[in-house]
Design brief:
about 150 residues, alpha/beta, Nucleotidyltransferase, domain 5, 5-stranded mixed sheet, 5 helices
Length: about 150
């Protein structure tokens, strides 16, 4: 795993990033455009086991020319790390052994709430909100990194 500044140095100028909102069973995925301006919800993966998850992520990486992976780290509101944060760190550590792309953890406090609130503003019905919550949360996480990236590079 990389520090955000090292991550920014290592990723190619024209390349896409993938955002991952890790969950116990459902893994939200978002992808950026190659200019790293906009994050878009992509899909929600159902985690059956680690091997199948890695296979699905590798396929998305190959199909979309991904150069970096942003994994949401659900830090508690008080800044402490709970079991979900440890799971995100474990996922990042394990993925870094199986996938060669650059990987960072990104503080995702309030990403689910932010994604749900954004859905409210877009007048999306409740069943679609819940169905798309994971990939919308991944979008929210990835957009945070993209915004940070552009502040550092302007």
């Amino acid at each position: 795993m990389l520090d955000i500044d090292v991550f920014i140095e290592k990723i190619k100028k024209k390349s896409r990033l993938i955002g991952i909102d890790p969950g116990g069973k459902r893994i939200g995925i978002a992808i950026s455009d190659e200019n790293k301006i906009v994050a878009t919800p992509y899909t929600t993966l159902i985690k059956e086991n680690y091997t199948s998850l890695v296979s699905q992520i590798k396929k998305i990486i190959d199909e979309n020319q991904i150069d970096g992976i942003v994994i949401g780290n659900p830090i508690n509101m008080d800044g402490s790390e709970g079991p979900s944060s440890q799971s995100a760190k474990d996922l990042a550590k394990n993925l870094s052994k199986d996938i060669t792309e650059n990987i960072i953890l990104w503080d995702e406090r309030l990403s689910s709430q932010g994604a749900f609130n954004l859905s409210n503003e877009l007048a999306i019905n409740s069943s679609k909100k819940v169905k798309k919550l994971d990939e919308n949360s991944a979008q929210f996480i990835l957009q945070g990194v993209l915004d940070f990236y552009h502040k550092k590079n302007t």
